[in-house]
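User: I've been trying to design a sequence by hand for this structure and keep getting stuck. Would you show me what you'd pick, starting by listing the structure so we're on the same page?

Assistant: Good idea, let's start from the same input. This is the structure you sent:
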């Protein structure tokens, strides 16, 4: 395999400088600043700050509201990840078996990928409109008085549905690519050994998709924790009130609306540590059970 050759050692460094600068400016510097701010009580008008040590973290640990939001974030992340992966895998398996109109079928499933999260949230507002929303009317037909932005559980349901709808196409693309990369000889051998389609899927196809599934698991957890911000902000119409919110949205509400910069910074540090711990757990424990071919 040929390796790229450079006439001078400074050229590759020069090529890396723009990317390294972006990482340093937009990730490392804000992270360091957030850690520093979490130990201070900031004046809401920017006139100064007072060192308070770990008081901001203690307030979070003793806050019933914060613990409630943390529980909802956990449930929200599990539901969005599970249904996004499950539906995408089901659709990918069906699309892989389509012969006629396969290209059109796959295009219809993937087009949602181009929709931005705030736009997806706005579409959710239309679909769940309390007066004439199609999904609201469907819920009423089965006796469910759906009230987006008023009822906690109804709003949480809408948040999960819209978030899943937005993420399914991304998972679908990867799962379909993984299915199409399985050698035809392996499929034919599995067909001889096991006549059951369900048995072949769980014994042969699913293990071969494990590396793709592991990658998507990390991507979907990150998506549910962070990238759903635009959807949540749109669905609650900028007025969270008693509506459900995730940890990342609470950072925004407390920091930019409550002007509690110290508390907001402490929340962002806690969230960053949790995500780091989750990532280490996934790679250390789950990846050991994944076999790459």
């Amino acid at each position: 395999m040929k390796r790229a050759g450079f006439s001078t050692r400074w050229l590759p460094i020069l090529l890396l400088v723009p990317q390294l600068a972006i990482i340093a400016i937009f990730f490392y510097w804000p992270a360091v600043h957030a850690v520093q701010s979490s130990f201070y009580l900031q004046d809401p008008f920017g006139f100064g700050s007072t060192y308070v040590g770990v008081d901001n973290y203690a307030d979070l640990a003793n806050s019933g509201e914060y613990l409630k939001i943390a529980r909802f974030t956990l449930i929200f992340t599990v539901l969005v990840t599970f249904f996004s992966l499950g539906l995408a895998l089901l659709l990918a398996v069906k699309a892989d078996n389509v012969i006629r109109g396969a290209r059109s079928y796959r295009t219809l499933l993937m087009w949602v990928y181009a929709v931005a999260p705030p736009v997806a949230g706005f579409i959710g507002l239309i679909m769940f409109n309390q007066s004439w929303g199609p999904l609201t009317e469907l819920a009423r037909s089965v006796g469910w008085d759906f009230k987006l932005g008023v009822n906690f559980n109804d709003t949480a349901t809408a948040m999960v549905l819209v978030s899943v709808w937005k993420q399914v196409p991304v998972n679908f693309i990867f799962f379909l690519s993984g299915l199409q990369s399985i050698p035809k000889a392996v499929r034919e051998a599995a067909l001889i050994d096991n006549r059951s389609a369900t048995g072949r899927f769980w014994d042969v196809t699913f293990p071969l998709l494990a590396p793709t599934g592991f990658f998507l698991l990390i991507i979907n957890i990150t998506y549910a924790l962070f990238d759903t911000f635009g959807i949540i902000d749109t669905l609650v119409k900028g007025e969270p009130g008693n509506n459900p919110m995730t940890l990342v949205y609470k950072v925004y509400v407390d920091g930019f609306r409550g002007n509690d910069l110290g508390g907001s910074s402490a929340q962002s540090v806690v969230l960053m540590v949790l995500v780091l711990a989750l990532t280490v757990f996934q790679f250390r424990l789950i990846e050991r059970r994944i076999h790459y071919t």
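That's my pick for every position. To get oriented when you compare it with your attempt: Residues 64-97 form the longest helix (34 residues). The chain has a mean pLDDT of 83.
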